[in-house]
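Form 7-S
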Amino acid sequence: MSTPIHRIATNTPALDDEALLDTYAFPDDRPWVRMNFIASLDGAATLDGASGGLGDDADQRVLNLLRRPADAVLVAAGTVRHEGYGAMRLDDQAVTWRRKRGLADHPVFAVVSRTLNLDPRSPIFAEAPVRPVILTVTEAPEERRRELDEVADVVSAGRDDVEPLQVRRLLHERGLRTVHGEGGPSLFGAFVAADAVDELCLTLSPTLTAGKASRIGHAERAVATRMRLSSALQAGDELLLRYTRTPETS
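Output:
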């Protein structure tokens, strides 16, 4: 049984899925990029090379719910490989929920890759309920592009590097207004540096690692984006925090 999730420092009953979806609802009036991460108390983004080592059933429950209302789920290719992603397919309950709200049955899986080091025969593509999008660079290997063109829409979003603002624009032009990002740290860092993040959902794992893992975001230059706490939930000793851009940075 999943650990109950409550609003922090209150005696309110545990939140059901609908209450959690309301808590994490996307705004109705504009495109939106949300990033979702988990970190240890000492700032590690992974344990033994994967973020899943830090999470638990409550974190996984929220992750699955965060995907539900999104038009696209955005993930870097390295994270797709290291975390063992399969096809971006929602369960029947989530599909029914989306249909009632006029959404497509499943979000589009949007994968970011400069090198196109992806296997076109993998379940990500072979079992995809909707054709994925690969966001790459114009300098990507032509042979790999041709192979992946058979199973996905391969789109250039920059010459040498995938540019976050181009990613936002290209997805929006495809009707993918609400984007839920799941990493990794380089992708998140690039989006922060480009001032392209509207929201961060951060699970704070009650774990100390003292290892060499990276933090949840890194980039060549530091950029400060002021955020405000929009919600704080608790599942046992774990905190589930939601931060959104302050009005002056929106």
